[in-house]
Amino acid sequence: xxxxxxxxxIVIALAAALRSTWSPCGQSMLSQITPVxxxxxxxxxxRTASWFIIGAxxxxxxxxxxxxxxxxxVGTVDMSHQAAIAIGAACAFVTAVVDTRVLGFGPPFIRxxxxxxxxxxxxxxxxxxxxxWQIGTGLVTYVMTAAxxxxxxxxxxxxQPWAALTVGVVFxxxxxxxxxxxxxxxxxxxxxxxxxxFTRAGEPVRRAVIGVQLVVATLGAWMVARPFVASSxxxxxxxxxxxTQAQRSRDQERAEMPATAxx
Length: 263
Description:
Structural class: mainly alpha
Largest sheet: none
Mean pLDDT: 92
Radius of gyration: 20 Å
Helix content: over 70%
Low-confidence stretches: none
Distance between the termini: 62 Å
Shape: flat
Number of helices: 11
């Protein structure tokens, strides 16, 4: 097994889980599974949040188990660790490109929301664990970044089932622990303030996750590719960052124009 591939997989898993928190499902959980929301349903927040985390961990085991099956297949190919790193780096660059939407398409994919009717129909262990599992798998609700399938790619490239399973568990657990962001909220005003800040942080997090994918791609390239190939990929990554930032600036200018005209 290439330890480097496993480390890259864990890094991508954490980044993908972070970005996924800004999905409609993630935001819904942070507005519904809160001390305020659970009190309104005569339930205990700690209990529901615990079930959510357990469900998300189970979801991570699910996606990790699928990746482990792929890892068994990869193991039979007897792929070198250099080849595994090269494939992972190439895939990381591609997913970063997809996330920037420079090709005219990009996330979100699989636009499926969890069923919020569960909140009023079922007990906390059902809706907490059920929502957690769906979110922890990463691929049955909104997919906010191409880094989510990239998690499976890196997990499979480890060629070791236990390593692939670990990457999946890290992803699911990170997604589940995000529910604890709502733990300090004790009033409606706390909720409003939190979600305003949360929404503002969405775009910086999106760009940061693209950056993580590009760093993994360039590091992998410098580890195993010829200098010309590695330097070319690095230049392409820098160009992508510059283009993304320029597009962001143009979008901000367009958003500010109506307000300027009104004044």
